[in-house]
Every structure is written in C-alpha cells, then in structure tokens.
C-alpha cells in the first residue's frame, strides 16, 4: 500500500477520501482504516484496533483487500476521465507483444545504469536542442518536402511507442503487472498511453523511476538519432527526416517534463515532494494566500484550506507561484499566436501561394492554438468553480 496516493480529510462530520483530485465520501470506519494506513500501521494492528474501538472483526487480509478494492477502481476511473478529450483511441499493444522487448531491456533500469545514463543523455539532448540553428526550431524556412513532413509525422508514432515502452519496462522491472499500450488522437496530435495503474502499489522511489522511464528511453533514442544523422553517410532526404525526428523527440521530452500540465513531470513532482492531489493543493494554496493577504474579507475561512494542504510547504508554494506565472504567460502567448496566425493566413490569401508547406504550417499552428484554447477554457472553468464554492 502506498500512502502517497490518497488524502483523507474529516470535514464537518463528513469523511472524505481524495484520489487524483476527486473527492469521495466514505464512512467513519473506512476513514479510520485509511488514517491508520497513512500513519504507517500494519494491517494486523489496524485489525486489532477496529476490534477494540468499533467491535468489528475482520482479518488483516480482508482489510487489505477491501482497501485495495476501493482504491484501484478509483485510480482507474480517474485515468479514464483524463483520456476523455481524445476523439479517437484504441488499445494497440498488449503485454504479449512487448513483454520480450521489455524483458531484454530491463538491465537499463538497474540503478547504476539508469541514473548515469539518464542524466548524461538527457543533458546531451537538451544541450543539442538548445543550440540548434534558430530556423530549425520555428520552421520558418520551408526546406522540407511534403514527403519528409509525412515521414516525420509517422516517426512521431515511433517516438511515442518508445516512450511508453520505457514506462512499461520500468514497471515490469519492479515486478508489477502491466496492461495494454493504447493509441489516441488529440486533435491532430497522436498520443500514446500505457496503463500502469498498478504503480500506485510501488514505493516512491520506484514510482519516480517508472515516471521517468518514458523520458529515459527517449533520451537514449535522441542520442542514437543524433549520432546517425551526424556520422552516417545517408541521402539528404533521410538526413532531413532524422534531423526532424531528433527535434520532435527533444520537444516531446520537454513537454513531458513540464510539471504544469498533467504529463510525466506533474506526477514526478507530486511523487518527489510527496504532494498527492497536487493540482487541487495548488488551488487551495492560492486561495489560502489570497485570503490571508486580503485579510479583512475572509481571513476566518483560512482554516478550510488548511485542512487540505500545508500552506507553508515550500515545494507547494514554489509550484503554485510558478504555475500562476505559466498561466499568465500562456494567456499572453494566445494573443501573440492569434496575431501571427491571422497574419500568416492573410499573407497566404493575398499572395495566393497555397503551397503544401504553408498549408501544413497553418494546420499545425491552428492545432497549437486550439490546444491553448482548451487549456484556458479548463482553467476558467476551474476558476469559476473555485470562486463560487466555499471549500471545493
Ligand atoms: Zn510518459
């Protein structure tokens, strides 16, 4: 049982279980069991205690099973909700497909291989990405042919499968059951996901490794790509594709590490600093400090938030401040993006140069813009809900 998966709260005679930012009302006995688990008691001790205080007879095994039966479906349910923004999804690879590969690669997860390789290779990728010529990054010069773009797009699928393979290899290394690797489309962006629900039963260190598994495999892929387009004597088109794939691989790594969207970086931060339900805690933290600063208005409500998180936790404060900053910058980015988008659109119509490259650029920018819009709609919805409700 891993205690960093859930929070429990007693609130005005109600008992609440919080898993992945969702609240579930539970009864007093269930609350007591969760509380004792969180306090580090063994199921033997809890069984004894329930017998004394509540006159409930149940074996430690029964207790453990009942808790697992409550937590597992809720973790799975939340996962299903997270994926609901995709308009298409399908299970692609099952354990029988990838088990052998994951077994063959398990040596990579051994601590003395994993950490040095991760640090060196990740830094190498980021360094190379940071010093790319500017036009490579924003694609202003349309030097690629349509064929190169198409093959690059297909390679994105390959990158994402490698990423998920990293997660499942790490999960398998820690002897946890893995499920399917699925594929979905989020607007025009392909998305892959591995069902690693069972990692919640792992220790914090192991969860961190599983969370980093995807990035880890991608950083190895990045080095291989870099070496092949730098040192191999290949034809120009192939070099172009390899170079593009290296860039996309690097960018997807960065996006994944970004802790302010619910990707790997978010779970990493939440595990590293033991902050389950981080995005809920972030909202509470902001509200706590708002109320504290605007003292005459509502300082006596502060206790509401204090129940859900420790408002003086440094990792939480840092996260909250940075996230507010990120949100402001994204808002500015939308306006900026909208401006350039209209410009690009206008110039294409005016000059009448409807070549494939400009149209692709337009589609791509439109997709990014839509992503930003979706993010902001969600943000405004949360803001509205937070302002309206007193507690959550
Ligand atoms: Zn991942």
What does this structure look like?
The protein has a 3-stranded antiparallel beta sheet with strand order 1-2-3. Strand 1 and strand 2 form a beta hairpin. It has helices at 28-38, 43-54, 60-82, 95-104, 111-130, 134-138, 146-173, 204-231, 236-257, 264-272, 278-293, 295-298, 302-306, 314-351, 356-388, and strands at residues 6-11, 14-19, 22-26, 88-93, 181-186, 189-194. 67% of the residues lie in helices and 9% in strands. The chain has 392 residues and is mainly alpha-helical. It has 3 domains: 3-79; 86-271, no CATH class; 275-388, no CATH class. The mean pLDDT is 81. Bound molecules: zinc ion. Zinc ion binds at residues 163, 167, 214, 256, 264. The chain crosses the membrane at residues 112-129, 141-163, 183-202, 209-232, 238-261, 316-342, 362-380.
Write the layout of secondary structure elements.
Blueprint: E1 6-11, E2 14-19, E3 22-26, H1 28-38, H2 43-54, H3 60-82, E4 88-93, H4 95-104, H5 111-130, H6 134-138, H7 146-173, E5 181-186, E6 189-194, H8 204-231, H9 236-257, H10 264-272, H11 278-293, H12 295-298, H13 302-306, H14 314-351, H15 356-388
Antiparallel strand pairs: 1-2, 2-3, 4-5, 5-6
Helix pairs in contact: 1-2, 2-3, 4-7, 5-8, 7-8, 7-9, 8-9, 8-10, 11-14, 14-15
The structure holds zinc ion (ZN).
InterPro entries: PqqD_sf
Transmembrane segments: 112-129, 141-163, 183-202, 209-232, 238-261, 316-342, 362-380
Protein name: Peptidase M50
């Amino acid at each position: 049982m891993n205690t960093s998966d859930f929070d429990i709260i007693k609130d005005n005679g109600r008992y609440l279980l919080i898993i992945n930012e969702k609240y579930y009302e539970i009864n007093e006995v269930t609350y007591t069991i969760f509380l004792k688990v969180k306090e580090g008691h063994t199921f033997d001790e809890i069984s004894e205690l329930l017998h004394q205080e509540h006159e409930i007879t149940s074996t430690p095994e029964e207790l453990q099973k009942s808790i697992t039966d409550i937590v597992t479906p809720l973790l799975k349910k939340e996962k299903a909700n997270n994926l609901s923004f995709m308009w298409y999804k399908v299970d692609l690879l099952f354990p029988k497909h990838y088990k052998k590969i994951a077994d063959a690669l398990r040596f990579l997860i051994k601590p003395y291989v994993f950490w040095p390789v991760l640090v060196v290779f990740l830094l190498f990728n980021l360094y190379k990405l940071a010093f790319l010529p500017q036009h490579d990054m924003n694609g202003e010069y349309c030097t690629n042919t349509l064929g190169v773009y198409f093959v690059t797009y297909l390679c994105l699928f390959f990158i994402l499968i490698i990423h998920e393979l990293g997660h499942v290899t790490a999960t398998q290394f820690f002897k946890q059951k893995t499920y399917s690797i699925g594929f979905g489309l989020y607007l025009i962006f392909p998305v892959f996901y591995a069902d690693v629900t069972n990692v919640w039963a792992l220790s914090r260190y192991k969860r961190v490794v599983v969370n980093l598994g995807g990035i880890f495999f991608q950083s190895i892929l990045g080095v291989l790509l870099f070496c092949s387009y730098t040192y191999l004597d290949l034809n120009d088109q192939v070099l172009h594709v390899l170079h593009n794939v290296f860039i996309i691989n690097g960018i997807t790594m960065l996006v994944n590490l970004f802790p302010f969207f619910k990707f790997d970086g978010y779970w990493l931060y939440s595990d590293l600093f033991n902050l389950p339900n981080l995005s809920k805690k972030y909202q509470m933290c902001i509200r706590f400090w708002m109320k504290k600063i605007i003292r005459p208005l509502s300082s006596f409500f502060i206790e509401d938030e204090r129940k859900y998180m420790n408002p003086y936790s440094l990792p939480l404060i840092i996260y909250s401040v940075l996230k507010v900053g990120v949100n402001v910058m994204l808002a500015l980015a939308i306006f900026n993006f909208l401006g350039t988008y209209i410009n690009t659109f206008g110039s294409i119509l005016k000059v009448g140069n409807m070549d494939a490259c400009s149209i692709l650029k337009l589609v791509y920018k439109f997709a990014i813009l839509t992503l930003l819009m979706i993010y902001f709609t969600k943000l405004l919805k949360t803001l509205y809900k937070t302002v309206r409700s007193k507690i959550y």
